[in-house]
Amino acid sequence: MTTQETAAPPGRGRPRDEKARVAILDSAAELLLERGLEKVSMDAIARQAGVSKATIYRWWPTKESLALDSVYRQWSATRPEPHQTGSVSEDLIALLGSWSKLATGRPYGRIIAALLSAAQSDPGFAQQYRAHFVDQRREPGRAILRHAIDTGQLPPGTDIELGLDLLYGPIYHRLLNGHALINEAFIRDVVTTVHAGLNAAA
Q: Residues 154, 199: contact at Cβ < 8 Å?
């Protein structure tokens, strides 16, 4: 919702519009998790949400853009609080552990894979994907790594973006391929290895 919409006097249709928008997002998330992106149609989402297909297209021009927003809404609702334990490793374990439990609690991997595929062929959608998923996931990690540099737990000049790639890369690899578990021991091993590697690279 924009600032202009927030500041405007509430019209008779506004609460109904917001209720419809939420119903669409929730319905899309449930159908996507149940069937996968390829097997879900806008018609099915409209039926489950109790709205017309025209209402959906008012906000989302494509199924992929709706899927992106619906999963973003699900994940944002349970966004973990930032941690400052005094230990960069423990802060990263808490951050990545909370996110990985959310991501693996339901079959999000196949949705992310489908969204990634769509981003490869659509530059506009790729920008949306990076803003909703990549940057939103990375910013809390950036804050932790910056704090670690400021407190001497990582050396000055540490490549923060490389560090984030090394931290999130193994988790996404397992999420997308499903070849091995994403559990607390795995998260701890990833963080320990990356922390040692960043210190050794200085």
A: yes
